[in-house]
Amino acid sequence: MPVHPSSSSEPSSSFLTDVSRFLGAFRWAFMPLGLLALVAVGVHAAADTLDDRLLTAVDRLDSAFDAWVGQFPSLASLVDWVSLETRTRLARALALCWELAADLLLALPALGYRETDAARPVEPWRPVTASSSSSSSSSSSWKALLRRCLRRPTPMRWVRPLATAGVVLAGACTVARLVQGTVYLSWRPLFGDVAADWAARGLAVAALGGVAVSLGWRAVLRNLQHADAACEAVGSRRAWTRGLVGCLVVAPLGLAAAWDAAPVLSFLR
């Protein structure tokens, strides 16, 4: 008696699986753009915290200038030369230029982010081919990069990734605050103040963790790779001065981002 094939075939992939595979084909485009957007948001959040400090610095410079020109009768008319409105505009312009410079230094390297395929099992008789093909990917791994940072430390290898980490944390907190405010204001009339507050905090923490896990560490890794490649290209002698001006630009923003623009504990209070 002939055996008929079973009518039950392999289950077809679900709609969500098909959509996930379709979107996964465009990771080469939206992952670098996502890293760029996250770093840009974090830099903007850090620059907002520096506006008042820059205005204070401009006021002190103006006071010193007024005190100096006030000593000479012929220059006494220049005491009120810079008004408060002009000082405010100058501080905002300085903050904008600082923010754009940090974007160029930290966000643009994210556009070079590329993902490699997972390592496949190699036949025992082809170890040489496998090692030569995977040498480029192993040299840019976390372990290899951190080893070079410890053995051949340079300002660019340490300052750029650490500043990126602070900026990324500030950007993730900005996204989490947006989620918290949106959920709380929209759910409060429906579920009450207490339930909306707890739900908003929980979703904010989830958004913070999701952004940090999906994009944050990739942005830090990409800047570490970029800094390592730049230092390796000039040799050990010139590596200490490589990107030194850029480090001086992004270091205060990274500190401001981690200290003032990243209120992680505020979502748990």
Question: What is the compact description of this entry?
Answer:
This protein has 269 residues and is mostly helical. Residues 7-11 and 121-135 have low confidence and may be disordered. It has helices at 15-24, 27-49, 51-69, 84-107, 127-133, 135-139, 142-151, 155-191, 193-238, 244-259.
Blueprint of the fold:
Elements: H1 15-24, H2 27-49, H3 51-69, H4 84-107, H5 127-133, H6 135-139, H7 142-151, H8 155-191, H9 193-238, H10 244-259
Helix pairs in contact: 2-4, 2-8, 2-9, 2-10, 3-4, 4-10, 7-9, 8-9, 8-10
Task: Describe the model.
By secondary structure, the chain is mainly alpha-helical. Helices cover 73% and strands 0% of the residues. The protein contains ten helices and no strands. Helix 2 crosses helix 8, helix 4 crosses helix 10 and helix 7 crosses helix 9. It is flat and about 85 Å long. About 7% of the residues have low confidence.
The share of residues in extended strands comes to under 5%
Which radius of gyration do the C-alpha atoms yield?
26 Å
Would you report the number of β strands?
Answer: 0
Intertermini distance: 73 Å
Features:
single chain, 269 residues, mainly alpha, 10 helices, 73% helix, flat
